[in-house]
Specification:
Length: 599
């Protein structure tokens, strides 16, 4: 080899050796961080949804469908029959004959209930859409080998796609929009464009939600008088001022959910649960959770238990000594309350006198539609997004819940606002709903894994201070409220508490949803409820039998609960003082405090 070529070869080998020696082998921690960064970038685009989870669901469906020739033939026959019936229906409609689709679609949609959808061609658009919905529902049902979770996921995605393509969503296929545009000579579309511009500005942080200035915390909502009597890194504890000369001896401590701000329980005076109870002679305390930021990323469930519930119980005992406490937990706050009550019962601590649970779950084996977002693949992406930010943003939660009812929560409002040009009506509950909160990475990670995926609390695997707890240890009467149309905590899931506890349990099922059903006010003409008390030795009744056998009653459920609370109180006495400075619980800021005002 020529000397010059040999020299160049030697230099190349030396450079290669230097490059290899400088290259660091990727360790497990660095690899995991790279994985998190990559998934977080994708999750930011997909709002936490895992594309792999979706792909797996469709592969499972289509793969098993391809191995089911009988099912395929059924679907072909069904499609042929639907097209024939639709053709016959359309021909008669063109002739002006008022006919019904035979057989009618099994799927009902109130979007198409107005008169304009009954004439051609709009009845053709609506019936084609409904039949497509029905056929795709048939295509995912009874497919041998398809897992239930994947069936629900495919159905969910199909519903989202079909919902987007609904003829009601397009001006040229919606008779109501066409009629309004004609009658107003396009003024509705002009207003709609103005609404769109306003919403874009709001999305970019330039504007507040339309109408939100009508409801301001501390001015006309969340105005029950009281004082902050304790504060730490995670909570403010509010004690409300009495409004009666005598009060029940046992105070009430509210444990609201931290996925929403506490003042849902103290909205306008007409539907404030706090004001109602205070006016009924109750001493009321309320936990107000801090809206976490990246700094609180490492706060887990134990932090919420210790710094939230346990510290609040300690404060209430110091301010109202020598008595037990009636506790109230709402949604995830109710789950935390059950965890704390079981932990205290395991230590023979009888500080809790009674437990009220408002739309709160203990058994997460059947959590309802929200489970569509909860599998290992989706959680891996969601956790990567939270890991990157340090918290889960309110928008991510809001988008997930809207996707469960896209017609009511996404497309319907968009049609009214952008095509009809109607301004959104704001009430106190809607203003509260727009005031979102965040959740720390560690807490949300533990909650989703331990509750929804592993169901540790119901199975007796959940640990507090390295000790497994059992709900069966709780020896306190319970008042448990479920709501009929709850998409967050389905009432049959809430009802499962009957199988996990032994003490007296009063179960009440009310009309309404997760929020509106609970915050119904003391008098509500459109509310109804069913209620029954299970004694300790009573036989178990399944949820369906229970609902069929209990007589419905009209009105709000609040007075029924108030009577139950009265039974949990031993005597009447003068109201306790606000705070107890001698024991470190000095009354400081006025309610609603500072934490609830943090955005």
């Amino acid at each position: 080899m020529p000397e010059q070529a040999q020299t160049k070869t030697t230099e190349f080998v030396d450079q290669l050796n230097n490059l290899v020696s400088d290259f660091k082998i990727l360790d497990d921690e660095s690899a995991a961080r790279m994985n998190q960064e990559f998934r977080a970038a994708i999750a930011k685009i997909t709002k936490g949804m895992s594309p792999i989870g979706l792909i797996n669901a469709y592969i499972d469906w289509l793969g098993h469908l391809s191995l089911s020739p009988g099912k395929q033939l059924q679907l072909i026959q069904s499609l042929g029959g639907k097209l024939y019936n639709l053709g016959s229906y359309t021909a008669e409609s063109i002739k002006g004959n008022g006919v019904e689709l035979d057989p009618p679609s099994s799927i009902k949609d109130r979007t198409f209930s107005t008169e304009g959808w009954n004439s051609f061609p709009f009845n053709f658009f609506s019936q084609s859409y409904l039949l497509a919905q029905q056929w795709f529902k048939e295509a995912t049902g009874n497919v041998d080998g398809l897992t239930k979770d994947h069936e629900e996921m495919v159905n969910f995605i199909n519903e989202q796609i079909l919902g987007l393509l609904s003829p009601a969503n397009f001006p040229i296929t919606n008779p109501e929009i066409i009629q309004k545009t004609k009658s107003e000579q396009g003024a509705n579309l002009k207003r709609g464009l103005e609404n769109l511009i306003q919403d874009v500005k709001q999305e970019n942080g330039s504007n507040d939600a339309p109408g939100s200035d009508q409801f301001v915390v501390g001015q006309n909502i969340g105005i029950s008088p009281g004082k902050v009597v304790y504060q730490n890194q995670l909570i403010e504890l509010i004690q409300y001022s009495p409004s009666t000369e005598l009060v029940g001896k046992e105070p009430i401590l509210f444990v609201p959910p931290w996925i929403m701000k506490y003042y849902i329980l103290d909205l306008s005076p007409k539907n404030s649960m706090v004001k109602y109870l205070v006016d009924q002679g109750k001493t009321v305390f309320m936990i107000s959770w801090k809206n976490p930021t990246e700094k609180e990323r490492d706060l887990g469930m134990n932090a919420y238990l210790d710094m939230g519930l346990m510290e609040s119980l300690k404060a209430v005992q110091a301010i109202v000594p020598d008595t037990k406490i009636n506790t109230v937990g709402y949604c995830i706050g109710g789950t935390l309350l059950l965890i704390g009550a079981a932990a205290l019962a395991g230590q023979n601590n009888d500080a809790i006198n009674s437990i009220t649970l408002l739309a709160a779950q203990a058994d997460f084996s059947e959590p309802g539609e929200i489970k569509r977002f909860l599998n290992d693949s989706h959680l891996a992406f969601l956790e990567s997004l939270m890991w990157k930010q340090g918290y889960l943003d309110a928008d991510n939660m809001g988008d997930a819940f809207k996707a469960l009812r896209p017609g009511d929560l996404i497309w319907g409002p968009m049609i009214q606002r952008y095509f009809h040009g109607e301004e959104s009506f704001m009430n106190d509950l809607m203003a509260w709903n727009a005031d979102g909160t965040r959740m720390p990475y560690q807490m949300h990670h533990e909650y989703l894994r331990k509750m929804y995926l592993d169901n540790e609390l119901a199975l007796g695997h959940y640990e507090v201070n390295e000790r497994k707890i059992s709900l069966s240890d709780i020896e306190a009467p319970m008042f448990v409220v479920g709501t009929q149309t709850d998409h967050v905590a389905p009432w049959k899931s809430v009802y499962k508490l009957h199988q996990l506890t032994n003490d007296e349990l009063t179960f009440l099922l009310t009309s309404g949803g997760h929020n509106a059903g609970i915050i119904s006010g003391p008098s509500h003409p459109r509310r109804s409820y069913q209620v029954h008390t299970r004694k300790p030795r009573d036989k178990y009744i399944c949820a369906e039998t229970w609902q069929d056998s209990m007589e419905p009653k009209q009105g709000s459920w609040w007075p029924v609960w108030n009577q139950w609370l009265n039974q949990q109180m031993s005597e009447q006495r003068k109201p306790p003082r606000i705070g107890n400075a001698a024991k470190g619980y000095k009354a400081t800021k006025d309610a609603p405090g500072e934490y609830v005002l943090e955005s």
